[in-house]
Specification:
Length: 270
């Protein structure tokens, strides 16, 4: 079965060193992908990503993750302390954003919320990650994201396009349309870059990797070159699948992301 037919959000580039070691590890990774793809998400290539939910209904996806979760209120903290006048940051992405496999408070949007507050910034962080999301699915959700009236959107999409072998030209076109629509609404966009393993071929991986810096230059958006920098392929930073980050992995992601985000943050007056 071709990897491009697997409808799941397994990020193969997290296993790049294994591909480089021997073909045995490539076979092992293929087994993991097939197990996750067919056992959890299904293997129907004609199936579409989840439809964009309405903000009021806050449904769950197939993995029990909530769409558009406001993470300003953490377990044990009073919601009364959350003020509506806070600027909003929307974390817009796939399972790396939604936090597949970890508790909500361990995913990167919740950890970013705490990091912002510790640094004295008053923002609301909204988790708009959807497991299995592609750039085409993200494009269909832009208006829903804008309903949250964000000041900043952290855009983390494209990995599933690469997994399915989608033409990088289509991925680029979708990301470009998302950025343009967000910027037209006055939103600051932080772009999170992605990478693919070398087994997809040099031409494909080079074209895919070039998408993010090209869009960052064209639209003057800050770029986080690789969302999983310092996390991919590190056992202590990833869950048992070797693909999705643990709490510690997300903590490292937040520290890297904070560097790109901080120049665009506004601290309240003393």
């Amino acid at each position: 079965m071709a990897l491009s037919k697997i409808r799941t959000d397994t990020l193969l580039y997290g296993m790049i060193p294994y591909f480089l070691q021997s073909s045995f590890y490539g076979v092992r990774l293929l087994a993991v992908v097939l197990a996750l793809g067919c056992g959890v998400s299904g293997c129907d290539p004609a199936s579409e990503p989840p439809a964009a939910p309405s903000p009021s209904s806050s449904p769950r996806d197939g993995f029990g993750q909530r769409f558009g979760t406001d993470v300003t209120s953490q377990p044990g903290r009073s919601t009364a302390a959350v003020r509506e006048d806070r600027l909003r940051i929307v974390a817009f992405g796939d399972s790396l954003t939604s936090g597949l496999g970890v508790a909500q408070e361990e995913a990167y949007p919740a950890q970013l919320q705490r990091r912002l507050e510790a640094a004295g910034y008053r923002y609301r962080v909204i988790n708009a990650g959807v497991s299995g999301e592609t750039t085409a699915g993200g494009l269909r959700r832009v208006e829903w994201v804008l309903n949250s009236k964000p000041a900043i959107v952290i855009l983390e999409l494209g990995a599933n396009d690469g997994l399915r072998g989608i033409d990088p030209a289509h991925t680029r076109s979708n990301l470009e349309a998302i950025i343009r629509r967000l910027q037209a609404a006055g939103v600051t966009v932080i772009l999170a870059g992605m990478k693919l393993p070398p087994n997809y071929g040099k031409d494909y991986t080079d074209r895919f990797a070039a998408i993010y810096p090209e869009l960052a230059r064209k639209y003057h958006v800050p770029l986080m070159p690789f969302f999983l920098e310092g996390v991919a392929a590190r056992e202590a930073m990833n869950q048992a699948d070797g693909i999705h980050p643990t709490e510690a992995g997300y903590r490292a992601i937040v520290e890297n992301l904070f560097k790109a985000l901080q120049p665009f943050l506004v601290k309240p007056a003393s």
